[in-house]
Write a structure and sequence with these properties.
By secondary structure, the chain is an alpha/beta fold. It is built from 14 helices and 15 strands. Helix 3 packs across helix 7 and helix 11 packs across helix 12. The longest helix has 17 residues.
C-alpha cells in the first residue's frame, strides 16, 4: 500500500470532473444549458394517478433516463440496481471520464468514494405497502424479489461506483438529510487534506419520488400543493412561496489534491477552499428563525477556507421555497456578511428541479463549480415578487455574467444539519 508524503492538512483540494443527473437533464452540459435557459424539470408526477391527491407535482429525471443509462453504463444485470444507484453510476462515470481518472496510472488504493444520501430508494416500498394494506400475503411475497436488498441498501451507490471503476480506497455513504451531499464534499475535503486519499469521488444521490413519500412530506407541511402552478410552484424567495416540490437525481464530482491533479496534467475546474458542518441543536424540522444556526455554518466555512467574507461575491442558496427556510437563510446571510451582503448575488437552483434532498447540494455544488469556471451565474426561476423581508440580491429572469473568485453553497437539512462549502476559481 502506498502512502502520501504530503504534510497533514496542507494539501489543497480541487475539482477535476463533474457529472449531473437531474430533472433538468441527464448530463453535465444538458443541465448547464437548461439551467441557463430557465428550463424547469417540474411537472405532474408520472408514476401514478395523482388526480385526487393533495400534491401532484414532482421534479423527475427525464423519461429516457433508463434507456440512456443502459447505453452509457456497461454493467451486467443493470436493472437489478436501484434508481439512486443508477443515478450515481451515470453521473459518476461522466465525472470520472471528464477528470481522466485511470487506475492504470493512479494507485487504486488512493482513490476513495464518499457520497451522500437522505431517503435513498423509497419508491421501491410502494408495491409492498399496497399489499400490506390489502392484507394480501401472496401479493406481498410476489413484490419482494431477490434484488430488493441490492436495490434499496443505502451503501449501494458508493459500493457500486467503486466496484465499477476498481477504486480500492475508502468507500462509504453519509447521511444528514438535505445536507448529505455537502457533508460528502466536506468529508472528501478532509480526506484529501489529511492524505487519506489522492482522489475522492464525492456528491449526493437520491430517488424518493413515490406516492407514499410525497404524501408523508405533505403531512409535515414541507411541500407546496399549488398544483395548478405547475413548473412555477417552486418559487424560492418569492413572497407567495408555500413549500418545495420533491425532486431526484445525482450531482457527482471528482475531488483530488492539487498536487495530484497537476502531476497528471488534469484540467482544474474549481478549488474547494473549505467547509463547515454544525448542528443547530434546535428542532428536528424547523430552523432557528433568527438565522443564528445557519450563520454558524457560513462563518465556519469562511474560517476554514481562509477566505475573507468580503471576497465572497456569489452564493448558491439552500432556498427550498419554504416560508421559514428561505427567510432564516436570508437572515443568516445578512448576519454573517453585514453591509457586504449587497455585493453578493444569490441564486436558488431548486426553483428548476425541486428539492432532491441529499442530491440537491451535490447538484448545486457541481453547478457552482461550472459557474466559477464559465463566468455565468444561473438564474432563480419563478421569482415574481420578492419577499420584502428577504434582503438579498437574487439572480432571476436571466443569467448574469460574472467574474467571481470565491463563492459559497449552503445546505441545511432536517435535524439541524447545517453545512456550508466555499469554492474558488481555478
Amino acid at each position: 500500500m502506498s502512502e502520501s508524503s504530503d504534510p497533514i492538512f496542507c494539501r489543497e483540494a480541487v475539482i477535476t470532473g463533474i457529472g449531473i443527473v437531474s430533472p433538468v437533464g441527464i448530463s453535465r452540459e444538458e443541465n448547464w444549458e437548461g439551467f441557463l435557459a430557465g428550463r424547469s424539470g417540474i411537472d405532474i408526477a408520472r408514476g401514478w394517478d395523482s388526480t385526487d391527491e393533495d400534491v401532484r407535482l414532482a421534479g423527475e429525471v427525464p423519461e429516457d433516463f433508463e434507456e440512456r443509462f443502459l447505453d452509457k453504463v456497461k454493467i451486467p444485470f443493470a436493472r437489478r440496481f436501484g434508481r439512486f444507484t443508477q443515478f450515481a453510476l451515470m453521473a459518476g462515470q461522466e465525472a470520472i471520464e471528464q477528470a481522466g481518472i485511470d487506475i492504470e496510472q493512479t494507485d487504486p488504493e488512493r482513490i476513495a468514494v464518499v457520497l451522500g444520501v437522505g431517503g435513498g430508494a423509497t419508491h421501491y416500498l410502494g408495491p409492498m405497502g399496497d399489499a400490506i394494506r390489502d392484507g394480501d400475503s401472496q401479493k406481498f411475497d410476489k413484490n419482494i424479489d431477490h434484488y430488493f436488498v441490492i436495490k434499496t441498501m443505502f451503501n449501494a451507490p458508493a459500493g457500486m461506483l467503486a466496484i465499477q471503476h476498481g477504486f480500492q480506497g475508502p468507500s462509504t455513504m453519509v447521511s444528514a438529510a438535505c445536507a448529505s451531499g455537502s457533508v460528502s464534499v466536506s468529508t472528501g475535503l478532509d480526506w484529501i487534506r489529511s492524505g487519506r486519499a489522492d482522489v475522492v469521488i464525492v456528491g449526493g444521490v437520491e430517488s424518493t419520488i413515490n406516492r407514499e413519500t410525497i404524501q408523508a412530506y405533505w403531512r409535515v407541511r414541507a411541500l407546496t400543493n399549488k398544483n395548478d402552478l405547475g413548473s412555477k410552484a417552486c418559487c424560492p424567495f418569492d413572497k407567495n412561496r408555500s413549500g418545495f416540490v420533491m425532486g431526484e437525481g445525482a450531482g457527482i464530482m471528482v475531488l483530488e489534491s492539487k498536487q495530484h491533479a497537476e502531476a497528471r496534467g488534469a484540467k482544474i475546474l474549481a478549488r474547494v477552499m473549505g467547509s463547515s458542518m454544525v448542528s443547530e441543536a434546535y428542532k428536528i424540522a424547523t430552523p432557528q428563525m433568527d438565522g443564528v444556526g445557519m450563520a454558524r455554518a457560513i462563518h465556519g466555512a469562511l474560517k476554514d477556507s481562509g477566505v475573507a467574507a468580503e471576497r465572497i461575491t456569489h452564493i448558491s442558496a439552500h432556498a427550498p421555497s419554504t416560508p421559514q427556510g428561505d427567510l432564516a437563510e436570508s437572515r443568516a446571510i445578512n448576519l454573517v456578511f453585514g453591509d457586504h451582503t449587497g455585493n453578493i448575488s444569490v441564486t436558488a437552483p431548486k426553483s428548476a428541479f425541486g428539492h432532491a434532498l441529499a442530491a440537491s447540494s451535490g447538484i448545486q455544488t457541481a453547478l457552482l463549480a461550472l459557474s466559477l469556471e464559465r463566468g455565468k451565474q444561473i438564474p432563480t426561476q419563478n421569482l415574481e415578487e420578492q419577499d420584502p423581508e428577504i434582503l438579498l440580491d437574487v439572480v432571476h429572469d436571466s443569467p448574469r455574467d460574472s467574474n467571481d473568485d470565491y463563492a459559497m453553497v449552503n445546505a441545511f437539512g432536517f435535524g439541524g444539519h447545517n453545512v456550508s462549502v466555499v469554492l474558488g476559481k481555478a
